[in-house]
Amino acid sequence: MEFFILSIFPNMFESVFNETIIKRAQEKGLVKIELVNIRDFATDKHRTTDDYPYGGGAGMVMKPEPIYRAVDYIKEKRPDVHVVLLSPGGYIFDQKKAKEMSKRASVAIICGRYEGFDERVRYLADEEISIGRFVLSGGEIAAMAIVDATVRLIPGVLGNEESLKEESFENGLIEYPQYTRPRVFRGMAVPDVLLSGNHKKIKEWREKKAKEKTIKWMGVEDG
Question: Which tens digits make up the pLDDT trace of 176-193?
Answer without folding.
Answer: 999 999 999 999 999 999
